[in-house]
Sequence to fold (314 residues):
Amino acid sequence: MKTRKLGNSDLHITPIGFGAWAIGGNWQFGWGAQNDGDSVAAIHRALEHGVNWIDTAAVYGLGHSEEVVGRALKEWQGARPYVFTKCGMVWDAKGEVGYSLKAASVRAECEASLRRLGVDALDLYQIHWPADDLPETEEGWAEMAKLQQEGKVRWIGICNASVAELEAVHAIAPVTSLQPPYNLIRREIEPGILPWCERHGVGVIVYSPMASGLLTGAMTRERAAALDPADWRSHNPEFQEPNLSRNLALVERLKRVGARHGRAPGETAIAWALRREAVTGAIVGGRSPRQVDGVVGAAEFRLAAEEIAELEAD
Fold:
């Protein structure tokens, strides 16, 4: 796959990266039970296709996703992919998730992630969610900059941030990347956030380009209604009426456009997210090699202007 430089870093990343949220298994914001062997096989299949980065987070499966990624890295025979992870979401002994960007917490999280992943340094360390209190976000960011200076992390980024939050942390230490949600359903980053990133040379790696499976073509009303209560999507309004009918109609447009090129709806949705020059890459999850095979082609798929307009039509 072709690669693009991520922001101000020396990382050149493929258009899609492997997203490791779902492989965390059962937890408060999980996708339901998951077989670790399938997860490792899915990661390896992505790497076989040329994907060169994995995005995970400490909180996914309460550390389990990082452990599985670490196992996949250990068993992989090829060149090691870049490893991106996140801090700021923490959990207690009961498994209840909370939030902290206090300096001591960020440092402890970094050390724990390094151990679970089995790496000497994190290629990209990201704030998962800004704190409600901006000074706490700034405190966490300043500590991440220290970790970068110490060589524990190579580059630092932030997820789910507003322009105001980006401005605040960028004044402390340069932001390498932003990770926001972006898909045909969620386009709120277009007016202000994407232009800010372009002006400041900040890379953008978007998550949920297929809207957490909603735009893959595999989701139906019946499947949405039958989602396991342990699957966080069962509580998401986008998977419920009245939003569900609107979203499934959008999938029909994705099917029509994709069919002209022999592409699946999910690949078409990812290609749409990658169409913007400001978007460096997209995070694509996979729970099995088959799922990876079904979407990896999006990395080289380009939509024509009239097809983009067709997908965006109300």
Notes: The chain has a mean pLDDT of 96. The longest strand covers residues 153-159.
